UniProtKB/TrEMBL annotation:
Segments forming domain Alpha/beta hydrolase fold-3: 69-272
Keyword Flavoprotein tagged: no
Molecular function terms from GO: hydrolase activity
Keywords from the named record: Hydrolase
Domain of life assignment: Bacteria
Family annotation (Pfam families): Abhydrolase_3
Name of the protein described by the UniProt record: Esterase
Amino acid sequence: MDPELEAFVPLLPRQDLDDPAAARERYSAYAASKPGPDTTGMEIEDRRVPADPEVPVRIYRPQGARGAVVWMHGGARIMGSLDTEHPWAGRVAAAAGAVVVSVGYRLAPEHRFPAALEDAYAALEWTAEHAAELGVDPARIAVGGHSSGGNLAAAVALWARDHDGPPICFQLLNEASLDDRMETWSARNFTDTPWATRANVAASWRHYLGSRPATQYAAPSRATDLSGLPPAYVATAEFDPNRDEDIAYAVRLLQAGVSVELHQWPGTFHGSQAILSADVSQRQIARLGEVLRRALAD
């Protein structure tokens, strides 16, 4: 493990996802303790996307932005909000020079699949319809997210392809949770790694799916056809149960004719980029901005 990250491991809060309400409180407290992003010169606005029910979004508009990314937060499908995601959404907007539409999707287990996907897709449609108002080119709209947010980004890309949805120019999948089967080498061997233990990964899927079988829109790794999807940036952490499912998804995208950049960050663990003082975390965050900036400029 990267020595700068390893020093923080004993200090990281342990999560028990069997109690979602308590997990949300701990997650919110941890997010509130992190330093906020530099949003100087950036317009930030809360809106509600007309849907049933309405979907809260927070819009970050850097000066001169020409593209947008519909951004889904992490949190194992049961945690997270516009407020907990503020540090990351603001940093992504600043680093990418892009409008970020951060989505406050419904959480499990109160709202199981497909509620979160419906909310994320409604936000994508709204962004495309309001591109002129947002000051962006409708041909420069991406989707992205971290962990469970990466799951939703991949699922939205699949859904938009299969249902003639708005064009998506790029998908950013950062340490995404894509496969409910938990059968890869990393899922079987990284059982007690920081933040993402095997028990918590299983609990996350259980809360999200309930008794329903997983489809490709719940677990994108189950998709049999990945052709026609937007170009992708797939980032993985070395000591992450999700690592191998993400690498396999990237390879399958390539084999389906989709342009992919795959970046495996050595010495990292799931969500370790939250440790902002580490050099590798700074490089990870900068890279997210670089790939989005390039994708939305093309």
